[in-house]
Amino acid sequence: MRVTCVTPLRLAWMASAALAALAAAHADEGMWTFQDFPAALVQQRYGVRITPAWLERVRLATVRLSDCTASFVSPDGLLLTNQHCVEDCLAERSSASRSLVDDGYLASDRPEELRCAGQVADVLVRTEDVTAKVLAAMRGLGDRAANDMRRRTLAQLEQACEQTSRQGSGAGSADGSAAGLGAGSSAGPLQCESVDLYEGGQYLLYEYRHYDDVRLVFAPEADVAAFGGDPDNFEFPRWCLDMSLLRVYEHGRPAHTPQYLKIDFAGPRAGEPVLVSGNPGSTERMLTVSQLVTQRDVELLPYLLRAAELRGRYIQFGLQSEADGRLVEEPLSLLENDLKETREEVQALLDDAQLARKSREQAELERRIAADPQLARATGDPWAEIAQAERVARDIALPYTFIGEGAGFNSQLFRYARLLVRAAAERAKPSASRLPGYTDAAFPALERQVTADVPIHPELETITLSLGLTRMRDRLGPDDPLVRQVLGKESPETLAARLVAESKLADPAMRRALWSGGEAAIIASGDPMIELARRVDPEARALRQRYQDEVQAPVRAALQRIAHARFAVLGTSVYPDADFTLRLSFGTVRGWSEHGEEIEPFTRLARLFERATGSEPFRVPPSWMAAKDRLELSTPFDFCTDNDIVGGNSGSPVIDAQGDIVGLIFDGNIESIAGTYWFDEQDNRAVALDTAAVLEALRKVYHADALLAELGAPAS
Amino acid sequence: MRVTCVTPLRLAWMASAALAALAAAHADEGMWTFQDFPAALVQQRYGVRITPAWLERVRLATVRLSDCTASFVSPDGLLLTNQHCVEDCLAERSSASRSLVDDGYLASDRPEELRCAGQVADVLVRTEDVTAKVLAAMRGLGDRAANDMRRRTLAQLEQACEQTSRQGSGAGSADGSAAGLGAGSSAGPLQCESVDLYEGGQYLLYEYRHYDDVRLVFAPEADVAAFGGDPDNFEFPRWCLDMSLLRVYEHGRPAHTPQYLKIDFAGPRAGEPVLVSGNPGSTERMLTVSQLVTQRDVELLPYLLRAAELRGRYIQFGLQSEADGRLVEEPLSLLENDLKETREEVQALLDDAQLARKSREQAELERRIAADPQLARATGDPWAEIAQAERVARDIALPYTFIGEGAGFNSQLFRYARLLVRAAAERAKPSASRLPGYTDAAFPALERQVTADVPIHPELETITLSLGLTRMRDRLGPDDPLVRQVLGKESPETLAARLVAESKLADPAMRRALWSGGEAAIIASGDPMIELARRVDPEARALRQRYQDEVQAPVRAALQRIAHARFAVLGTSVYPDADFTLRLSFGTVRGWSEHGEEIEPFTRLARLFERATGSEPFRVPPSWMAAKDRLELSTPFDFCTDNDIVGGNSGSPVIDAQGDIVGLIFDGNIESIAGTYWFDEQDNRAVALDTAAVLEALRKVYHADALLAELGAPAS
Fold this sequence. Notes:
Largest interface: A-B, 49 and 49 residues
Structural class of chain A: alpha+beta
Distance between the termini of chain A: 33 Å
Strand content of chain A: 5-15%
Number of strands of chain A: 20
CATH architecture of the largest domain in chain A: Beta Barrel
Oligomer: homodimer
């Protein structure tokens, strides 16, 4: 399981998706914000007291990575997360002769810790409610104007927040005074992001302590971290040591992180109440039924077919040679994860019983609104407005996907080119009138993204680009004017190979020069990928604008009215949809029953060896084979809980009532994928690594004694 | 467009699919049998008289190929069909230095005509209604016993028919006396097949004149036959010369075929009434809504994902070298055709409005049954019985697909192995108690199939087999006992490569030896693919049996009661679902309107050259570039009609009121794909080649003067 909220092809729907949640989550449903955590409910259900101090400590020890979660586990900036969250870094730091993905890595001392390019770490230190300001700015405006004003206002608020933070930080003072959340670590610059919860029900500014020097300390071999590979992904029972350790640095030294979590190496007990802190990426539990159906038909299913084809191309490419096999390993494993997740999402959205349940809930809400004339007047008919917006979404789905979102040009080089072209054009405008994502506040992250020294593999670029071009021609038709203009007399394969070969954008120095040179440099560049991005941009922007005006704006306005009506009818004991901001969920360690069979909540080390075949992906690495006789084979390995999590929670600590770490989230079961749309407490389970297995591995397999000492492990 | 009824992975649902059609087809809907053709309706609507003599001549001139249609166009056995129907043969007769697919072929004289291995040609010469015999045999039996008895009775009837035919044929007499259909050509052996129309409403014996020496006379280059390739497939407007000429031989000489159709090289006019004679492969217009939904979810969608992945592997494989590109060309084009068709079928089955319309029709039928107490008693609740059978179908879908249907072992070598293993085992039993498909009547075709000298490409076999094994492990899980047993310690890729390398089944002589040697030879063989097929067979047979008993039998019984109820309520002005037997449809040459734009029914030759880019698949071959100045560029090229056709009609003649050929069906538009489930006369169009373009091409590009003389073309 990986966060999917950052996959470019799947980004578009999210903005229109989040919506105030249904009332009174039954069971252990809910991804709660720290500021509105239902501590009383947890106390009543489990007798566990979650105090404000507990919440503050856990919040300040929980870290958001680029697309995962981690937690501080020592005062010297040591971070615990998953191996699959650092796979990018492992691949980047590998050489032709040595694969850190295959071999794993253990820094013998701190100078050996390896910087991960582009990896960032953010700690949420302060939140501020700005709902009143935003609503005041939007008051009285039509859908489109309100949508523009909302974005502009939030951009201005972010900018003002950053300026205040920089002043505070520059003056060397403590962080901006906390609105109910308390102060964090005093180190690292501060960054502000606006957050929109409950689809316009609540606007917040989140202030993060930001670290951009993150180094690799330890990762096990992929064979044991991802034992079972794609066949076992999203499954339980499971036998994966999916862990890694990173360290946050500042000014070249390990960061001082006094707020960290202790690891309890005994692991959890069956039935024990546990909490999971982290950044769930994206849920869409509040979409209307017709929105879900549109999403299934025009977004998920076409994406699934392109992804399945890409899987075939990757696999066949990897069979050409051992080197090609290594090259494709990481992108393939990311893709397979996404494929399985999307496949199960589609299956969920073909489940007539669940869709019927949602329809009934929707009808019940409509009935209760209709029963209150004043509420009915204020609410209008948002469902009809959404249906109209969806007709537009379906009409423009193909050009919007291929040109607007760029699926037709699917390659890292094109994404760089589009970003450079747009950043140069947008920079000339006032921050608040720019394209979404190009505000002043966003620029540092864009710069990091575009200039990061990550390897570009021309063979893989050619594969993804030619596939995108081929399917674009297929779906828009060979007589589409833009298709004809882009392809000219070339075939998609030939054009893709030529663009990748001739573009110089794989060189970070070239990208940095274009980033700094602005519009003049872009126009003068002559780089064929830049030229392609410029040629396509007018139509891409027009499609984006149309989508924004005729789909997003009316849908937002309608969802906001539904949200307010739902608040009016059902009250406020609700949680907002996930959006890769900090949340806390509660639950217990427990299995489930499948076809009448009980699935135990724990696996044991012994079965790892029994399942090994010696062939990928069921190969136990040599280090473990050598250590087998020393290992206590009854050690609990992985376990499952009924906490409500989704992708983005990867690397989240599983925390006991005392606030100690007893496990490390790395996946969910196959039934958890439907969690994007609804939480089924019967079957939905989070999957975690047991800290008892962590101790056994670090001590007896990896002999990581210095790390164990830093983690406060009991003497062996 | 190609017939899909022969794709092994998609065969299972068809048996349970066909069902007596809805009453009174509006517009030009309907794939009518020759014996029940609505001549009065055609007379009334178009003023065209279709006489019994017209029907007999067209029937005897229409030919069923292995998976297409063709028609006799000279008294010397000359057949007109599509280039895509002979692509197999072109590929088989190619060498490393010369590709007949790429270069086309024109036999300079009859000795140069090339035999197509495995290609057969069948002419329907006699039909006999055996409904009363079958119903009498089934009377009073339960669902499963009735299902077994039906199969056994039909097998016995086929066998008796073949014996009678052989005696007649052996004695050199004319064919068995015709029951309403008249006598056919006196040449070629006769074969009998049982046909089940209206899902048990009507049982027939069809007697065919069978030819197995079919030779290639002419095919144009793939670049012009399939101009536009996959992007243009299932589209209109269109510019394809998708034609070929074959010749049927017997005793080494061209067959004498006095019943042939004349070609009218003027082509059709807009608005002209036309008829299409041929063998539509499969429609499922009478399935219940819940059957359609089950089909979509458990059959089509999973198949689509496997096929998309295979497309990616094929494409990447083909990029390795020019030779690999050529090797993969034909299987890739078959796959892409199937992919597009399945994708559009899934889209059709996600169309809520159409499903709602079907639900309303279903509810109306239920209401009218309920209003007639006697009918209600006789009908019972077949919909509930179908729903129960579908729950079983969904439960066993994964093992049934991968093991029962063999998708987990997807390769020609495994299919040979399974066929050899089963034929040896079944031959020992009485014909009527064997597995479906292994009756005495079926054995000659099985033998031809398994011993045909067609090339096996180990690289492609390894690709499809490893993909099947990988997805089987993925979906059944690595801990499934059969998966563990099959894979052992090997990875799917390693096992597939080893099996393909070590098996000797690619050699037709080896397959012939195993076919003749029977069970003893099979057991002694030691061939690893045979051993795999034997190892898997008990579970595969058990799954098949369960599917037959718990899905097919109750569904058949229920559908038969629905069919009888529908007859009772709606009368008999209906046509049966398509099943690759001979049908006739009527309609007119006309375009349609799309997004308010009128699509003209004809394209012209000029635009072929305008659309050419020089790159695959928009390349005009050198022969056409050289002839360009001689060509009349205003010549009509392709056209469309509103006849009701589906895959299997490829190669069908488009016939005018006089019984002359004016066009050659080779495709349908994208909207025609939903024709599997319903006929939308607004948008569903058949796509055909104009005989005027045939003349222009044969005369000015290919200088095929002898052929033109044989076809009775006007002097130039």
